[in-house]
Input
Amino acid sequence: MTTLVVRNSEIDGSAAVPGDKSISHRALMLGAAAEGTTTIRNLGPGDDVSSTIACLEAYGVAVRRTGTEAEIRSGGIRSWNAPSRALDCGNSGTTLRILTGFAAHHTFGTTLDGDASLRRRPMDRLVAPLGALGARVQTTAGRPPVLVEGGGLSGADVQLAIASAQVKSATIFAALGASGTTSVTEPSASRDHTERMLNALGAQITRDGLRVVVEPFDPPAFEIDVPGDPSSAAFLVAAGILAGRVHLEGVCLNPTRIEFLVSLARMGASVRWETDDDNMGEPVGTIDVERSGLTGIGIEGPLVPAVLDELPLIAVLATQASGTTTVAGATELRAKETDRIAAMVTALRQLGAEVEELPDGFIVTGPTPLIGTKVSAEGDHRIAMALAVAGLAAQGETLVEGYEAAAVSWPAFEQVLATLGGEVELR
Output
């Protein structure tokens, strides 16, 4: 087990963030489904992206990865071979859920599995949407391993029970190989990276409110420079608000990914963002942030899905905000790599914060001084990095046990903090 020691310190400077994880997954899968050679630059560096590559290789797709660049050579989705064993998705729920959409193209069965953490995460939400197109999805008591058998898919009108970009993407990817038109309607808007990337490749994807209409499509080979991950950028943004100043460039500013920045502005933070480029339909730009006084806010209802990954950071920032910050309707946090509600409430209380746990969220009353102590990442990459950020503002030393979990999405996060002036040390 690795422990990250974080001391109260100031940060100041510019930094780059890794390639967006969500876009990296989708680019890899679409490249593997395309006939020809696809080149992906600035690929996300984490273990989750490596899991996707390993699964595609198990299908017989040739993937050559050099650092943050990958070259994919494929004969197209119809050339994929039946895997000789269950696909190991590691800790990546995105890999497992989205890849079921391409698995549904094939008459041979694909079993998708993962580590102990992934085996606790819900997968039954895939059954009805893919089943509506004609695929058979069988879970293990609603969780992995998941068996997918497909082929002969037909377009359908699909209603999603929850707003999930992963389930929506799985359904869209399956619909690419279906006969006829498919529509996917979600209860509230989720990330639209799949739709943007497919449209940039020439697919017929149209949106009418919460309804996405998909026509069959064979993706062509392509090249892409993956923009910086806004979910990773969020940790440096929060660090800047608590401990100094940060400038970030080349960050994906997709409207479905900036609710965290909007929420910070509502809290009174000094945060600015500006789009200056477009990359395969994704707006890309800069973020500037500096130490700010904060005021508590409420986050609930349709705002929750748009900021779900950043809610651990909202909890950290709320400890230094005047008044009360309430997050409700975020039950999905309990079904991530760990129970993120319980993990953050426990850790922040250990650091001296005033936090109340709710069944579907939390209430933080601030500001309260944080005092460094020993806390646990609970095997979750976002908890590990959120607690590292909290450590910058805490007096004394904060010891984040199990920090190796950060490698799932950003293996070099602590090095970037150190470059900016943060006093951090691995033990």
